[in-house]
Amino acid sequence: MSTNQPQDIVKLALDSHDNIAISFSGAEDVVLIDIACNLAEDVRVFSLDTGRLHPETYQYIEKVRDYYGIEIELLSPNSQDLNQFVKQKGLYSFYADGHQECCAVRKIAPLRQHLADLDAWITGQRKDQSPTRSDVPQQQKDTAFSTTAHTVTKYNPLANWSAAQVWQYIRENDVPYNKLHDQGYNSIGCEPCTRAISPHQHERAGRWWWEESTKKECGLHMINVVET
Ligand code: SF4
User: Fold this and answer.
1) Disulfide check for 120: which of 20, 98, 193, 213 has CB 3.0–4.6 Å away?
2) Contact 61, 24 (CB under 8 A)
């Protein structure tokens, strides 16, 4: 399994599950959408709209929607929970006491709700992205979102690819990309928690830069932290 190409894993995933969707973060994991659209017509894609994304990311999501002629489902936080959180903690509490609480409201809860209705999802995780991802397999049971009654399978087709391979694919296939990448942004998340990096820095150095690198998961892939 570890030597399979991303195309093989995406095909396996789509062939194995009718109820499956790609998680698109508005960054370089658009490669997954490109691969999937070459394999199937009805590709389901969702993205977490935290309400804190860069304008460039929102514009990029729309560009991908138009380019591939696909629907992209934007998952929003529960308004009551978000209002309560912001009322109590304000808009920038993550700088003081960590990103987990904000991510839990803006990302994890909407994702958990969405995955409850899916059998599998496809993500753009790569082993070389972070110390928390060094053991990511191409296919796994997602124990963070499975329940006793419902198993969720997670596919990570790009697990064994480097950033260079991802960008080679993007360039060779003329795949649209987020313009923030041209401004020194590498890994792109929410605007307040993402900053541009210099060429010698690790690609995730611009995410939650005030926190320790082995804790840099927002909970979407918390299985990595738990298992490492
Ligand atoms: S990445 Fe930052 S702004 Fe976005 S949900 Fe997490 S803590 Fe909140």
Assistant:
1) 20
2) yes
